[in-house]
Specification:
Layout: H1 6-25, H2 30-33, H3 44-63, H4 79-98, H5 120-144, H6 154-160
Helix pairs in contact: 1-4, 1-5, 3-4, 3-5
């Protein structure tokens, strides 16, 4: 396996977890996708749409380039469409990370925030935190309604990469 930075591993988890969640939710019925629970963003598809839309906004802040297929919260996207957009967006994240610390970003002032020079780490942090937060919302909706939950933790990701073998059941 080629050497990757810790930050690249963290973003690969972000990419994997969102893709895995979308794939898990593609198996749900329209009625299940419409479910929500108090304390979450809302129904499943709008929440996943929000994850991807905010990711696009953060990528645009880093690169100055808009997404090829803009996703907004007021749009209606299917999980198949979101999956396709997410795959393209994943490549954009990898390209940004490949630039390393040479990418210098200053965020302009936005009320109530002043301009933020050297904001690359802040934007990357926001992408990770935001994605984790809202993926948890989707899992909370699933769990609150007795539906199966996809485990999106670091251990499951690590296992998915082949770095750790799958656990075997004990022999009798």
């Amino acid at each position: 396996m080629p050497a990757v930075s810790d930050l690249e591993v963290i973003f690969e988890h972000h990419i994997w977890a969102t893709r895995t969640l979308i794939e898990h939710c593609r198996k749900l019925t329209p009625e299940q996708l419409a479910l929500s629970t108090p304390g979450t963003y809302g129904a499943i598809v709008p929440t996943i749409t929000h994850i991807i839309a905010e990711d696009q906004r953060l990528l645009q802040r880093l690169t100055g380039e808009p997404a090829e297929v803009p996703v907004t919260e007021d749009g209606t996207f299917t999980l198949d469409e979101l999956h396709t957009v997410w795959e393209r967006q994943s490549e954009r994240w990898r390209a940004v990370l490949a630039q390393g610390e040479t990418l210098d970003v200053t965020l302009p002032a936005r009320d109530p925030w002043p301009p933020v020079p050297g904001a690359r780490p802040l934007v990357l942090l926001e992408a990770i935190q935001h994605g984790n937060d809202h993926r948890t919302h989707v899992c909370s909706v699933l769990g609150a309604h007795g539906l199966p939950i996809e485990f999106l933790c670091g251990w499951a990701f690590w296992r998915s990469t082949g770095r750790v073998p799958a656990a075997t059941a004990p022999t009798a």
